[in-house]
Design brief:
About 65% of the residues lie in helices and about 0% in strands. With about 290 residues, the protein is mostly helical. A hairpin with a 5-residue loop joins strand 1 and strand 2.
Length: about 290
C-alpha cells in the first residue's frame, strides 16, 4: 500500500516542493555563489595554513577541484559580490564558461546590465563565439594574427641564414641587456625607421641646396656673357652707321618751311573761267 502510494505521488507532492524547476536551479546557483564568495573571502583573509585549518573545521570534503571551481567563479565575479542574486539566473556551467579566457570579457559587459536573463547571456556567448571564429579566419592576413580578446599582434617568419647572424646577435643582446627578443626587435625596427626618415629628409635638403648653386651659376654665366661684350667697339660701330646715313640723306634744317611759296605754272586765264561759268546749265527755280 505504501509502495503504491509513493508510485502514484508526483515528485513535487512527495517532497512538497515547488514544481517549477527554474526556481530550484536558480536557488542552487545562488547557494553555489554564496559558497564561492565565502571561500574566496577566507582565502584572502587567511594565510595558507590558516585557510586549510578553516576548511578542516568546516568539514570541507568536496575536493580540490570543486574548491578551485568555486574560487575561480568568485575571483572573476567580484563585481557582483554585493548582488549575487543577479547571477542566480545563470547555471554554474555558464558561470564557469564566462570565466574562461575567450569569454571573460563578457563579465565586464554584464556589469552594465541592471537585470539580465540566461537567454540574453547565452546570446552574448554565441555572438562572442562567432566573433572569435571570424577573427581567427579573417585576421590571418599577411603576418598579422588575432588574440582571443580581439587584439592584434605581428609575427615574423622563419629567418633562415647560413651564418645564423640574427639568432646569434639576438642571444648576445639578451645576455648583455636583459631585454626580451620582442623588445629588441621593436627597438631595432624603430631605430631603422627613424634613420630612414632622417635620410629622406636629408636628401630633400641636399636637392634644394644643389638647386641654389645652379641658379647662381646661371646668373653668373649671364654676367660673364655681358662682360665679354666690347661695348666700346659697339659704340664706334653705331656712330659709323649714323654718319653713313647722314651723308646719303639731305641734312634736315627746316629751311623749306621758311622759303616764299612759288606761283603755280598752271596758266589760268580769266576768259577761261568765264567760259566755264557760262557753260553750266541754268536751274529753273519755279520747278523746285
Amino acid at each position: 500500500m505504501n509502495a503504491l502510494t509513493i508510485a502514484t505521488e508526483s515528485y513535487e507532492q512527495q517532497h512538497q516542493i515547488n514544481s517549477n524547476p527554474t526556481v530550484h536551479i536558480e536557488q542552487s546557483t545562488l547557494e553555489y555563489l554564496h559558497t564561492a564568495f565565502l571561500l574566496y573571502e577566507c582565502k584572502q583573509t587567511h594565510n595558507k595554513r590558516e585557510y586549510r585549518a578553516l576548511l578542516s573545521e568546516y568539514a570541507w570534503d568536496k575536493g580540490n577541484t570543486e574548491e578551485k571551481r568555486s574560487l575561480k567563479i568568485a575571483e572573476h565575479f567580484q563585481a557582483f559580490v554585493n548582488r549575487p542574486e543577479d547571477l542566480a539566473v545563470l547555471p554554474v556551467p555558464v558561470l564557469l564558461r564566462l570565466c574562461s579566457r575567450n569569454y571573460k570579457v563578457l563579465i565586464h559587459e554584464l556589469q552594465g546590465y541592471r537585470q539580465f536573463s540566461c537567454t540574453e547571456v547565452l546570446e552574448l556567448i554565441e555572438e562572442r563565439r562567432a566573433f572569435l571564429k571570424s577573427q581567427s579566419r579573417d585576421k590571418k592576413e599577411g603576418n598579422w594574427r588575432a588574440t582571443t580578446d580581439g587584439n592584434r599582434y605581428y609575427t615574423f617568419g622563419k629567418i633562415m641564414e647560413d651564418d645564423q647572424q640574427t639568432g646569434v646577435l639576438t642571444e648576445k643582446l639578451i645576455e648583455q641587456t636583459g631585454l626580451s627578443p620582442q623588445r629588441i626587435v621593436r627597438m631595432a625596427i624603430a631605430d631603422l625607421y627613424e634613420k630612414q626618415q632622417t635620410e629622406i629628409t636629408q636628401d630633400e635638403i641636399d636637392d634644394f641646396v644643389a638647386a641654389k648653386p645652379a641658379e647662381e651659376n646661371l646668373i653668373s654665366d649671364l654676367g660673364d656673357v655681358a662682360k665679354k661684350i666690347n661695348w666700346e667697339s659697339k659704340q664706334e660701330e653705331f656712330e659709323t652707321l649714323w654718319q653713313r646715313d647722314g651723308e646719303e640723306s639731305k641734312e634736315y634744317t627746316g629751311s623749306e618751311y621758311l622759303e616764299e611759296p612759288q606761283e603755280s605754272d598752271i596758266d589760268c586765264r580769266e576768259s577761261d573761267v568765264a567760259e566755264a561759268i557760262d557753260a553750266q546749265p541754268e536751274i529753273d527755280i519755279s520747278k523746285i
